[in-house]
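Reviewers of the previous submission asked for a worked example of the structure-prediction workflow described in the proposal, so we include one complete record here. The input consisted solely of the amino acid sequence. No template or homolog information was supplied to the procedure at any stage.
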Amino acid sequence: MKLIRVGAAVLNQTPLAWECNQRNILGAIRAAREQEVSVLCLPELCVTGYGCEDAFHSPGVLKTAWEVLEEIVPATRGIIVSIGLPLFYQKGLFNTACLICDGQIAGFAAKQYLAGEGIHYEPRWFKPWPGGVHTEIVIGDKSYTLGDIFFDCGGIKIGFEICEDAWVANRPGGGLALKGVDIILNPSASHFAFGKYEVRKRFVMEGSRAFGVSYVYSNLLGNEAGRAIYDGGALIACGGRLAAVGPRFSYADYQITAVLVDIDATRMEQARAGSFNPALIEWPHDCVPVEFSFPELFPELSPPVRQPWEGSFHLKEEEFARAISLALFDYLRKSRSHGFVVSLSGGADSSAVCCLVGLMVEFGVQDLGLDGFMKRLPVQWVEVRESRDLVRKLLLCVYQSTRNSSATTRNAARQVAGSLGAEFLELNVDELVQKYVEIVSEAVGRELTWDQDDLALQNIQARVRSPSVWMLANLRNALLLSTSNRSEAAVGYATMDGDTSGGLSPIAGIDKAFLRLWLDWMEKTGPEGLHSFPALQAVTSQAPTAELRPQESGQTDEQDLMPYELLDAIERAAIRDKMMPVEVFQLMQSQFVHYDAIQLGKWIDRFFGLWCRNQWKRERYAPSFHVDDENLDPKTWCRFPILSGGFQKELAELRVYVEATYAR
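From that input alone, the workflow returned the following structure tokens.
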């Protein structure tokens, strides 16, 4: 029995925050040493931060990254540590994992497969390292092995799959298995998305089984660079079984997940596999020998392998609550803002945003304690004694009424803010709205009316609300949160410089149908380990409405657009799955059989028209968080021309098809 304690670290890094990143790395190494870890895997590009983007092409950034690495090396005495950083070689930039053994750099394994789809853009900055190739790189007065390599550390062979390397069919782990590697380290920067964690667990477990290794997976944590959220979730597997699982969505700067692995056991499992045939030749060039003495260890009980809430029937609701709350916390402190301001209308979207801020405080205090949470903030308040005190300092809710506002939304806004403990202000902006209407009426020489000027009269109300709420954010040195959701972004159902105003749009990546389900869950159940939010009943009982027309019109969002459930389904088919209008119609007919075919055709026609006309709005939305492959953010996921033909030919075909097939 050859027992070794291996560990995976999750780190909350920030691009180009050298001192912070170095402090977290050193802290993780110290914590691993305290747990008697012998082999520690840190996340991908953890020295620079993963999200440096075009700053990776700065020679100064590469120079500083190397200097930071050299400062970290002495802290690795008595331990083997993998640290990620970019490395420049022969006019190419490579994403590498540096293995440091007992205070000495052993070499650099280079990433072979680059993530270049969706939110990822690695081929813009890095080159893929070719499999089977290794070389020597000279830095200063020393030479190091670089490339497709593995390491023999005191008789234990260690290899790498760096993030995307494990997501492809031709995984490097297959070749490493033939060479007798015992441990595969996977330093990753794998962003959160709904359902993605289960995929990670599968490839970690399957890698450990198929390659006959102990597989150690580390990841980034938190909102690193603004848009992507990293959930942490370190994983360690042996023989196809999870041996240890780290927590997700932690508010800590770093966390270590460690477990004993039996090297002899994984070796014998591979020996018993009839399909396994080792490569019986020497590998003197791509195997870097390193002297290291592992301590003698004894068996112990394994740690639990799942957090309680991850078995919840409402896993998506739990993940959404925890991911966005953590992202808000990191955005707050990394932008050095003193809090948040939300224009709380009493409707679903703004109420959801306010609840997420409240959850940010509750989750953070639960994780770090009140003092620990407070110390991470850019401003301190001595009078804060409990979580509600802190929510009041961090969240200002502003209800801005006009003559078209109702008592229902006013009361809902007040109840939501009160239940969270937020500060609440009510402003009546109707006089400002009427003044603008009078000025423009005089200028154009006629009275503006709802019959003739409906859209302009709606929009001026939303725009008038923007200056005051921005002013309040400025007074507090706070971040104004926009409240637009993905469904509205798809069809441009938002007023630019009005309800889209803000420095961050936390729910712009999520659809309205799910938000309504989430609020209902929050009202009646709430996150595991916290509580429900009964005050949301005042919100969930309403039909969503912008309240921009006179109340007697009975305005609702779905009357203006179409049923949200249908809108979201059309969006997925048209934008995510790239279907043409007739194909979308045929699919919607099979899914929504209760809608009249003629009306369904009109709604699909409306969607495509609104989508094309409103790309310019999506280009101007405040940054949003990425949570799945249905994001409409043109900066990171869904690129579409601002000017286009507008699907005119395809929509004409749809009208002909519907008329010919269903007209009576």
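The longest strand covers residues 80-89. We consider this example representative of the routine output the project will generate in years two and three.
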